[in-house]
Design goal:
- This protein has 330 residues and is α/β, with parallel strands linked by helices.
- The chain folds into three domains: 6-51, lambda repressor-like DNA-binding domains (434 Repressor (Amino-terminal Domain)); 65-158 and 293-315, 3-Layer(aba) Sandwich (Rossmann fold), CATH 3.40.50; 160-291, Rossmann fold (3-Layer(aba) Sandwich), CATH 3.40.50.
- The chain is built from twelve helices and ten strands.
- α7 (128-136) links the parallel β3 (119-122) and β4 (140-144).
- α1 packs across α3, α8 (160-173) crosses α9 and α10 crosses α11.
- It is elongated.
- The termini are far apart.
- The relative contact order is 0.11.
- InterPro entries: HTH_LacI, LacI/GalR-like_sensor, Lambda_DNA-bd_dom_sf, Peripla_BP_I.
Length: 330
């Protein structure tokens, strides 16, 4: 079914397209009778006419859309939660969130030229050409998530290395010298796996403990059991594991049970994200909370400040919002 246009409304109501535009846009100074106005609005409602985003932008002089560009990530609970909080924070400021999952194929320029956002925020790096083109078009470019360059103005960075450090530090403080790292196998999160693992390695080195024993773990029982066996056969045996995230950690708990082992008695386990299910695992999962609601508030405040030509109030680094949630698994 084709979209209803202003020409359809004009034909249905028996007036010109200019008159339709004046009525539906409440154009000041247009002399149009109330009867005609009522007829045009009735036609528009009956036909289901909705002005395009581009038309609304031209009429108001600006868009209310904030385009959020995600790389080709799996949309797990953490990303879903962050986007949900961010959408709520922006809505309170009269802005709408549009999320674009960037995959190979359609160029980013096709998207921002179509929807005409007021601002673009990325969890992926923009090419210099895209960044400059958006700025020339009057679109605020508000940075990207890039752990390797957290000090650049307009960049949002939660320290993935700090997550790994926090996991390892807790395991060391609870008496574990030899720890393992359960790495997710999805290639789309490889950067995050490596950054968190870097944090674990750095913490082990500074504490004078052996480097973490890395095992890949996908979300299957066979994979989890294989990793548990490798850690137990290691000399000396691994007694605690930092998992890439809670999903991997939950798989490990199942792998331990399948081997007749317990957490933390045989192997302590720490996850990341504090998903709702973490408190209901057996045993309840110790994990790292990323304070996603706080990250969303800061991000929304930075977006709004950038749109108003201001600088957001300085706040602690997002890595400082991390919180260790201690439960029975470690």
């Amino acid at each position: 079914m084709r979209n209803v246009t202003s020409a359809d409304v004009a034909r249905d109501s028996g007036v010109s397209r200019t008159t339709v535009s004046y009525v539906l846009n409440d154009t000041p100074g247009a002399v149009i009778s109330e009867e005609t106005r009522a007829r045009v609005r009735a036609s528009a409602e009956r036909l289901g006419y909705t002005p395009s985003a581009a038309a609304r932008t031209l009429r108001r002089g600006r868009s209310d859309l904030v385009l959020y560009v995600l790389p080709d990530w799996p949309l797990g609970p953490a990303v879903d939660t962050l986007l949900d909080h961010l959408a709520g924070e922006l809505a309170e400021r009269g802005l709408s969130l549009l999320v674009h999952h960037l995959r190979a194929g359609r160029p980013l320029s096709d998207l921002w030229r179509t929807v005409i956002p007021r601002a673009v925020v990325g969890f992926t790096a923009f090419s210099p050409e895209d960044r400059e083109a958006m700025r020339r078009a009057g679109i605020q470019v508000l940075g990207n998530l890039d752990d390797a360059d957290p000090g650049v103005e307009g960049t949002f960075s939660t320290s993935q290395r700090s997550i790994g450090r926090l996991q390892a530090r807790h395991l060391h403080r609870t008496g574990h010298d030899v720890i393992g790292y359960a790495a997710a196998t999805d290639s789309r999160v490889r950067q995050f796996v490596e950054l968190r693992l870097d944090g674990v390695r750095a913490e082990c080195a500074e504490a004078g403990h052996p480097a973490p024993v890395v095992q890949p773990v996908d979300l299957t029982l066979d994979s989890a059991v294989s990793a548990v066996r490798a850690w137990r056969e290691h000399a000396p045996p691994v007694t605690a594991v930092a998992a890439y995230n809670d999903e991997v950690a939950i798989a490990l708990l199942a792998g331990l049970r399948a081997e007749g082992l317990t957490a933390p008695g045989d192997v302590a386990v720490v996850g990341v994200d504090d998903v709702p299910a973490a408190q209901f695992t057996v045993p309840p999962l110790t994990t790292v909370s990323q304070s996603l609601d706080e990250q969303a508030r800061r991000l929304a405040a930075t977006v709004v400040a950038g749109l108003e030509g201001e600088t957001a109030t300085p706040s602690p680094a997002l890595g400082e919002t991390l919180e260790l949630v201690v439960r029975e698994s470690a």
